[in-house]
Design brief:
With 321 residues, this protein is α/β, with parallel strands linked by helices. The protein has 12 helices and 12 strands.
């Protein structure tokens, strides 16, 4: 059997090769991940493993032998899930693998912003050792963190934030989940108004696209910070750029963008109050090993005729016996 790997951000597929060899499958790694290349390579593939490449309806339609599409990661917005479901193909994902990494990244960005670490570092390299460069700095302890989306990552951010003596409030579609974890459930509007920092941990859905818009940003305190390590399209980046330019926010830590590579002249990138990272919150040496193994194990399970550990389209599992 053949498993088409559309793209990876690590060195090789050694872990996937080991897992898939147990079901008699071999991997083929695409060179570019472009649609035309994937259409050609998928013709005789039994499965797809994809990281960021677009698995379009055309790619799925070309895979006449496909039995499963596996995602390296949580979100599946780069996969035409509806088309896969229509063809009876399970789409698997790895919903929990980088919980610590994302939580650490988010809180790291918050601490850097609140303590003025980036402007101080830039100033010292330019020969400016004055205290005023990074001011005002604030105390994190005693401040309020608003968590939007209280799944595994949101809960871990909350747990670690309490270790910094932060108060946690949260908005989630399931209030009981928030309360069971010992946090205070609030409406989205109340969270925006009360939080000293807002961190986003919801999936990208029609209902969450531009969830943080100009109205949301205006509701936040001018001393507050926005953090996003979920999906870029959850935030209206033009509105965020305007809010930062007008000093309506103290700062923003953004790891994900829409599009993923902003044009160099995008107004957001001109804002000194922005701390930007290149979609790296998920990454650590440990998390990448976990991700590769779990994604491959999902695909291997389906190829064996078993149910995978996680799937986003349960209806398609009827084809897996």
């Amino acid at each position: 059997m053949k498993v088409l790997v559309t793209d990876i951000t690590w060195a090789d597929t050694a872990i996937e090769d080991e897992v898939l060899a147990q079901v008699g499958a071999k991997t083929v790694l695409a060179r570019t991940g472009d649609e035309d290349e994937l259409v050609a390579l998928v013709a005789d593939a039994d499965a797809i493993l994809t990281c960021f490449a677009q698995v379009t309806p055309a790619v799925i339609a070309a895979g006449r032998r496909l039995k499963v599409i596996g995602r390296y990661g949580v979100g599946t917005d780069n996969i035409a899930v509806d088309e896969a479901t229509r063809r009876g193909l399970p789409v698997t994902n790895v919903p929990v693998y980088c919980t610590d990494e994302v939580a650490e990244h988010v809180l790291g960005m918050l601490l850097a912003l609140v303590r003025g670490l980036v402007p101080y570092d830039r100033a010292i390299r330019a020969g400016d050792w004055s205290l005023a460069t990074g001011l005002p700095t604030r105390r994190v302890a005693g401040s309020t963190l608003g968590v939007v989306g209280f799944g595994a990552i949101g809960q871990e951010v909350a747990r670690k934030a309490r270790g910094l003596d932060m108060e946690v409030i949260a908005f989630d579609a399931d209030p009981d989940r928030v309360r069971a974890a010992g946090a205070e459930w609030v409406s989205l509007a109340e969270l925006a108004a009360r939080a000293d920092a807002v961190t986003l941990h919801v999936p990208l859905l029609d209902s969450t696209r531009h969830l943080v818009d100009a109205e949301f940003l205006k509701a936040m305190k001018p001393t507050a910070y926005l953090l996003n390590a979920a999906r870029g399209a959850i935030v209206d980046l033009d509105a965020l750029a305007a809010a930062l330019a007008a000093a309506e926010l103290a700062g923003a830590g953004i790891d994900v963008f829409e599009p993923e590579r902003l044009a160099p002249d995008h107004p957001l990138l001109a804002q000194e109050r922005l701390l930007a990272t290149p979609h790296t919150a998920f990454y650590s040496e440990e998390s990448m090993r976990d991700l590769a193994r779990r994604a491959a194990e999902n695909v291997a399970a389906v190829l064996r005729g078993e149910r995978p550990a996680a799937t986003v389209n349960a209806d398609a599992l009827a084809t897996v016996r």
